[in-house]
């Protein structure tokens, strides 16, 4: 099997799985329990929090564990609007956000909020100038992702943060695809809320984190229950997932530059090899080192994915979250219909090889030369 869909999820390294197994079977105490086994679990969880916070460049008490990026996005947006409930009911976001943000915005519109959706250009880019033009006195929140999960385009969140200095407007960024893949810290971004997730980095599914800093005050809870996560995110802490998240982050940070360089090299090699295929077009600015979006215009992407899958090659037709629907990102970019219909996303990880890319190039060429394009 050749796995080229790391932007969807990642395999859990054996070292990470071993850490999780130890927590599940040996250090399994409830962190809220007051006997030694529980106190040890609490101590471990707080040490794991330090690992993730250090990688994000923030203090441990600014980081709250969540179940996933989707929960983090929802919590950040709701918390920001609660804090700024007296500022107004205007929100600025983009038309190319992850569905975790877009679906939340749809719900907020139904609740009476006014949402401005910024459209990208043909490369998938959004500028700080667009945010500046959309800002109003009653703008409570700007929510713009750091790296688009389909095109790999990096948005200028730092410039947007600079625009909002001296204003009550809060800034949230979904950094799930950017965390450790592109250089940034919480301080360098300047966002008030930053969402990250574990399973894009070799951690397990079911764990993420939300950074709360800058102008953000103590966040309003999304859920209610026990006193976990300093009373703000109730539910017994998923200690094994947290430990796996921290272990995966540690593996990334100990050879961070080498990993980033490998991703860049694999992406460059893929562009070189795939660029030889007649008619193939690359999509978007693709700033991030691990995402490459491309199209075989006229060849439906789901057919491509099916053919590649039969050969043991795993790629996505856009985002894994779309489940076969036409991508809202490609629609917002106003791509020609034949081009948009043929888009696939290839994404790389620490274990990606040139052999896998060669197999992909061969399979795509075979698909192009043996299948009939749509009209």
| Proportion of residues in extended strands | 5-15%
**Total beta strand runs:** 12
**Cα radius of gyration in angstroms:** 21 Å
Total helices: the number is 14
Which of globular, elongated, flat, extended, rod-shaped describes the shape? globular
Which architecture name of the domain at 2-9 and 255-370 does CATH use? Alpha-Beta Complex
CATH fold field value of the domain at 2-9 and 255-370: Aspartate Aminotransferase, domain 1
Unreliable stretches: none
CATH class of the domain at 2-9 and 255-370: Alpha Beta
Strand order of the largest sheet: 2-8-7-6-5-3-4
Helix content: 40-55%
The largest β sheet comes out as: 7 strands, mixed
Order of helices and strands: EHHEHEHEHEHEHEEHHHEEHEHHEH
Q: How many angstroms does the end-to-end distance come to? A: 32 Å
Indicate the structural class: alpha/beta
CATH superfamily grouping of the domain at 2-9 and 255-370: Aspartate Aminotransferase, domain 1
Q: Your description of this structure?
A:
It is a single chain. The protein has 375 residues and is of the alpha/beta class. The radius of gyration is 21 Å and the shape is globular. 41% of the residues lie in helices and 14% in strands. The protein has a domain at 2-9 and 255-370: Aspartate Aminotransferase, domain 1 (Alpha-Beta Complex), CATH 3.90.1150.10. The chain has a seven-stranded mixed β-sheet, with helices on both faces. Strands 9-10-12 form a three-stranded antiparallel β-sheet. Strand 6, helix 7 and strand 7 (193-197) form a beta-alpha-beta unit.
